[in-house]
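Review form for a predicted model. The reviewer records the input and the model, then writes brief findings.
Reviewer: anonymous (R2)
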Amino acid sequence: MRIQSRGVAVPARSLIACLCFMAWVHAGAGQPTSPVVRAVETVSASSGSASPAPLPGMAAALAAGRPIVVLFSAPGCPFCHALRTEHLSDLEQRQHAAGVLYLELDLADRRPFENSPGTPVPPLLAEPANGRDLARRLGVRFAPTVVFLGPEGEVAERLVGYGMRDFYAAYLDQRISEARSRLARRP
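Model under review:
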């Protein structure tokens, strides 16, 4: 069955899947079978968990003027997985050489952020208590979304979705260069 909307035929199954996903993200639901924590800091949704979500190197990166590249993802999101494996795994390997810090946060993660003891909390994270709050504060509503952060907020235009696979690496590199140059011009 196809649904006609503004002259465009959309398969009903796609429309229903999209609506279900948006409702799932908005509700903060979705319990993964096991939490995923990788070296780059992939933080999974665990609404009832009391264990904090670590933010390795975030305060140091902001103090050093390195942009933070954050992928907001969702469990089971095929586009998030494709983006992660096709482009961001390379960034993960070369993040120090690229002069960035790469983190991955789950849109529905309610675990509180945790900084290393004695490490000041960056102003950007003073208010958001967890990944879900940070996503809401930044207006991130869809997965995958990649944002480029500095001490005061976004420093480059975000990348929403994963539609242009052939050009995505160029877009990513352009945004990273833009973020680095904006942070370098900061007083």
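Findings: The radius of gyration is 17 Å.
Further findings: The chain has six helices and nine strands.
Recommendation: see findings above.
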